Amino acid sequence: MRTRDDQVKRQQDEVTKIRNEFAAVTKKEGGNLMTKDFTDDIYERGFEDRWFIPETSEMFCNLLVVVPNIKLPEFRLGYWRMIEEYYTNNDATEEAKIPEVVEKKYKAMKEAQGEAWEALVKSVTGGEPGEFTEGDEKNALNILRTQEEKAFKKKKASRFPFALIPDALKELPKLDDKDKENTVLRLVAFRPQLDDI
Q: pTM of whole model > 0.85?
């Protein structure tokens, strides 16, 4: 026999499900192209194949972006540098966080007192785990910092040089007649191969 709490829970789950379905329909139908899901519009409008790189292409892929009309001239001038600028900015932020990451990692290892901590202590003191001196702690932090910096450099070196192709920008016809503020553009990017990753 079900309790009243089970019935209430079932009703709440049903209401949540209906709300989510309604939100999905509303998002698809309403809003502007920045918030609207326009994927189906692409297929329903029946754009000619020449508008897109075939999905079977092993070297290139399509990217669809929504750009505010006011930013279109600026976007057209430098869109193909976006990925490089993104990685440059992202890498600078990530590199600046290394000291903080090292501190957190050190504290977590010290608190856990597990195998990783014992290996770190052994590499610093050359012996069994014991009390760390201030000098030992600095050495341990330097070891962890070196590990983090090596991992960061390895990540950068293994990154596929994902690049947008210059002069491959294509403006799609209006997908939403109500949205006069945004434009959908098709860009072409190199598709990473498994050997490149």
A: no
Q: Write the pLDDT tens digit of every residue in 172-197.
A: 777 666 667 888 888 888 766 545 44
The answer to whether residues 36 and 181 touch, using CB atoms and an 8 Å cutoff, is no
Rounded to an integer, what distance in angstroms lies between the CA atom of residue 105 and that of residue 21? 42
Angstrom distance (rounded) from CA 146 to CA 126: 18
State the span(s) of the chain assigned CATH 3.30.70.100: 12-80+162-196
The Cβ-side half-sphere exposure at 29, using a 13 Å CA radius, reads 6
Tokens for 46? 């029946």
- Interatomic CA distance for residues 39 and 176, integer angstroms: 12
CATH of domain 12-80+162-196: 3.30.70.100
